Amino acid sequence: MEAYRDQYATLFNNGRNVVVIGISVDPDTALASWARDEDFPVLFASDPGGKVGQSYAAFDAKNKLDNRSLFVVRPDGRIAYVTKPFKVLTPSAYSDLAAVVDSLAPPPKPDSTK
Questions:
Q1: φ, ψ dihedrals at 92, nearest 5°
Q2: Does residue 107 register a pLDDT over 80?
Q3: Distance from C-alpha of 114 to C-alpha of 23, rounded to nearest angstrom
Q4: Which of 2, 14, 16, 29 has its CA 20 to 30 A from that of 106?
């Protein structure tokens, strides 16, 4: 999640027309504290029973946790991109993610009148 925070402007167009939600089985109080302490510009949701993770086949029942899957959901609610697991140490994973986000919510074009 730190990479998402650190690359938020590039990956998610500074949040323009994009909502980023990190979902985990951690308690909501722990997520809120961590998000505040680490200054995350994304939302977090608690999935204590793993129901959301199970719905998206992103729950590891053996270890009782949501895995590091990444989903990009289009404005119409359809899934546009999935990677299971997200390869946090692979630079191309971030460029691929940014390209998908840009295709759905393009960054503003520079104002050529100035």
A1: -65, -25
A2: no
A3: 42
A4: 2
pTM over 0.90: no
Report the pLDDT value the prediction gives residue 37, as an integer from 0 to 100. 93
Contacts by residues 22-26 (CB-CB < 8 Å, ≥ 24 positions apart): 23/47, 23/52, 23/53, 23/66, 24/65, 24/66, 25/49, 25/50, 25/53, 25/64, 25/65, 25/66
**Non-local CB neighbours of 42 within 8 Å, separated by 6+ positions:** 1, 4, 5, 8, 20, 21, 22, 35
Question: Domains (ranges, CATH) in the chain?
Answer: 2-104 (3.40.30.10)
Q: pLDDT tens for residues 37-79?
A: 999 888 888 999 899 999 988 898 999 888 888 888 888 888 8
